[in-house]
Design brief:
Length: 221
């Protein structure tokens, strides 16, 4: 199983790229949205990948984030949704938009993807709605880690005048609630109402907190 390909972007076509890594060229199929975010040919690129193997073919599909890869895996688990149909949904909505549509039960948003009819869209929402919080938590965690890894993402902290003291790391509960809050804000909820819902939710991980908060935020009736 090839889980990630990292190397030089040799060329980009309408539905795939070729990445040269250690002297081997990998053809990787991507959504339109992912292709649009690719660097110029000759630049370095890294994609998480999923290999689809059938009797008549073997193809790699590429994703910029783990959340996008996980959504592709979940979408293709739905009867009637193949690898390219899953790419169409992700290309139309993006990973965050897919999370939003499925978590909120927005069948019409899923139907907006090319080749996705009303029955398939409804099946996607019905079968994956309970799994959306876990992917949302994965996406929020990935965004937090990316910001932490980028020195420009956070303000510089001045050196203390006194002798440094050991500072305990953030509690895991605090991190989980921060990820849950980030995911809900990305869904379009106001920061205040999302924060209140997360604060009132019970759970030890972001996925459980998101699921509980979504239930609390759902319209009555």
């Amino acid at each position: 199983m090839i889980g990630k390909v990292s190397g030089r972007l040799d060329y980009r076509m309408a539905d795939h790229v070729l990445i040269e890594a250690a002297g081997v060229g990998y053809v990787v199929y991507c959504s339109e949205r992912t292709l649009a975010q690719m660097p110029a040919e000759g630049a370095h690129v890294a994609l998480y990948t999923e290999m689809v193997v059938r009797e008549d073919l073997m193809q790699l599909y590429g994703f910029l984030t783990l959340a996008e890869k996980e959504w592709h895996r979940l979408l293709t688990s739905v009867q009637g949704v193949g690898a390219k149909a899953a790419l169409a949904i992700l290309g139309t909505l993006g990973p965050e938009g897919t999370s939003r549509a499925i978590a909120l039960g927005d069948v019409s948003a899923v139907r907006a993807a090319p080749g996705i009819g009303p029955k398939i869209a409804a099946r996607v929402v019905n079968e994956l709605q309970d799994k959306a919080p876990a992917v949302m938590a994965l996406g929020a965690s990935g965004a937090r880690q990316a910001m932490a890894a980028d020195p420009a993402a956070a303000p510089a902290v001045p050196e203390p005048a006194a002798a440094p003291q050991m500072v305990p790391p953030p509690a895991s509960d605090g991190i989980a609630r921060a990820d849950a809050l980030s995911a809900l804000v990305n869904l379009g909820y106001a920061h205040g109402e999302a924060a209140a819902a997360v604060a009132a939710a019970e759970g030890e991980d972001a996925s459980t907190l998101i699921k509980a908060a979504l239930k609390a935020l759902a319209p009555a009736g």
